[in-house]
Protein: Energy-coupling factor transport system ATP-binding protein
Organism: Bhargavaea ullalensis
Amino acid sequence: MPEAVFRLEEVSFRFPEDDRAVLNGISFEIRRGERVVLSGPSGCGKSTLLYLLNRLYPANCDGIVGGTVRLFGRLSEVWKPGEINRFVATVFQDPDAQFCMPTVEQELAFTLENLRVPREEMKRRIVEVLALTGLEELRGAVIQNLSGGQKQRVAAACALVMQPEVLLLDEPLAHLDPHTARELVRWLDGLQKKTGLTVVAVEHRLDLWDGFFDREIRLGPEGRLTGCGPFLPGPPMRFPERPAAIGEEASLRVEELSVSIRGQEILSKLSFQLNESEIAVIAGPNGSGKSSLAKALCGIYKKSGGRVNAASGIGYVPQSPEFLFLTASVREELAFSGIASGEEVDGLMERLRLEEIADAHPFSVSHGQKRRAAIGAMLADNRPVIVMDEPTSGQDAAALLELYELIDERRREGVSFLIITHDMEFAAAIADSVMLMKDGALTGKFRAADVWADPGLLAAHHLIPPKGANAHEPAFA
């Protein structure tokens, strides 16, 4: 049998400031060349477990580890700082957290310089990995000007250019459009078959991986191992039926909206209307301008032309929820506006499964919990129009269902939603209309069922038809 690259025996982990352990009694091994997915509800410790495998924890957080962690047969604690990074590369959940240099090429070169790769070898590797990840055109691009999905691909390229033996992926598809996600999975499949790379991924969007994984390690809500065996895909996510009931009054009008940054036009003359109680999904390829549109509607990006008319302001849940946080606890975030009553805040806390982290600092919780806290804060603000950028990222099935119910309840109260998402099942269930974007322009605003039934329209915007979703009308199958 291939050797074990990771072996954990009765491992527990606790942050020094916490009374409760994040992980409890975890035992498993992962052998060379395996493809393993770590699954479980949001906040159960999946990312923490991943960071034990690359020695980021406990070294970088003073965490308290119980049990035994062996990496390539050696006890974790005997590896020197940075030594394991020659064998184990990581793509983090938040790609911004791992960038050090301004441009894509400089970031790749910086990674190789740290490994003391000779200059000529460095040039060859950079060209190869840019081609493999489809980033050739972004070679000289400034990373902070890229979309969330493009940043995710750059982070993957930086990990793979190291030619590691193990690749750790923390929700690598979270910000990728469906087509790009599928392409990345196909490419990883070919790479793994060619090199024998060991792949360990934390993931919620398992449908996009098809049959990639050999094995699944499942964690429960208390950070305990609940299963370890062959990967068996579950049934498609199902949402309750809901009648569409769009109002006749406009809650948001956008006319000829344009945005330019440093002389480059990123949004070009967008015009559309959102009615009271309407839920519209914004979809399209990575880099098409979806997040830029959200920022322009909320005034974060200054208009270079056109008008945005909203009755009483627009609420905004950004793709990086940290940008919304202003207080020292999750509960204070939801109560910050002072508009929702204490009872309403308590109700949102319960429904968004935030009660157990009510007193935690918003920056200290998991990615999925941060996103739910940001959503809760904006729902508590009672804005008539709410823009959400990738609200489903990092959410398990129960959290998705509760989010769906909360959005539908607010819609029935007259609130309108613009939702940017790459989750086609969620989009098919929640959307009255779909706004398709490409290259900074609006292709059009369509009835949702018409989009799912048009293969050409889907392909042109890097989308795939939803699986088994019960939208208002039958989804394209």
Summary: The CA atoms of residues 436 and 444 lie 6 Å apart. The two ends are 41 Å apart (CA to CA).
